[in-house]
Amino acid sequence: MFILRNRLLLSSFIIPAIALSPLTQASSTTEHSGEGTFYSYGGGGNCSFPTDDSILTTAINATDYNGSQACGGMILVTSTATGKSVKVRVDDQCPECSKGDLDLDQTAFAKIDDTSKGNIPITWHYIANNNAGDIKLYFKEGSSQWWTAVQVRDSRYRITKLEYRQSNTTTYTTLPRTTYNYFLASSGFGTGPYDFRITDSKGQSIEVYNIPLTVTTEIDTGKQLPKSS
Q1: pTM for this one?
Q2: Which of 29, 124, 134, 204 has the highest count of CB atoms within 10 angstroms of its CB?
Q3: Do the Cβ atoms of 46 and 7 come closer than 8 Å?
Q4: Residue 200: count of CB within 10 angstroms of its CB
Q5: Phi, psi of 195 (to 5 degrees)
Q6: What digits encode the pLDDT tens for the residues 4-49?
């Protein structure tokens, strides 16, 4: 009997920003194991990323989702039965999955095992997304100087921290992260432009400057996090 999970896409609900457990460098290289299943993913998952047919994706169990800190992470997942592997990006959460489980999009599942099985034993670990291009920033619909939510897209590694400041000032403010994968200032950033400091799961940071408050349009930062050994 195979399992095709049906899940509520939680990203349609506004959920307050929460304090999240910090990621460590060790968690980037740890080998995980669990059950692999599949579902029909049509975009709009809990990570709030746009649909991209060129990228294979997965939903991740709630424990490893960690309040959205897994979002955007690239994973190498292997069927222990066939030995075949596939690269997938975390785009969604699987609340009913146990720790270590992945709910792959159907195309990704089919690359490593027979979909008639439905659920398979897997191992997986995070890898660099070396095809990401430049990092993009995206201000959520409804953002203004009084309520501002911003998302980091196309990063080489998972993002663990985002700080902002008004351009031409000196002090950064750390932004809380929502479970739907936006960094939120409930009282807003004030008038722009802004500078951002972006930190990844390897502890690496980059700074980008003079970012305007342009809503619902991807802003290319022209920068990417460095490769880490």
Answers
A1: 0.86
A2: 124
A3: no
A4: 25
A5: -110, 150
A6: 454 544 433 344 444 444 443 335 568 999 999 999 877 779 999 9
How far does CA 165 lie from the centroid of its chain? 23
pLDDT per residue over 189-208, tens digit each?
A: 999 999 999 999 999 999 99
Counting Cβ atoms within 10 Å, is residue 130 exposed (0-12), middle (13-18) or buried (19+)? exposed
Extract the tokens encoding 156.
């080489």
106-122: pLDDT as tens digits: 999 999 999 999 999 99
Residue in this structure with the two tokens 């750390």, named with its chain if needed:
174
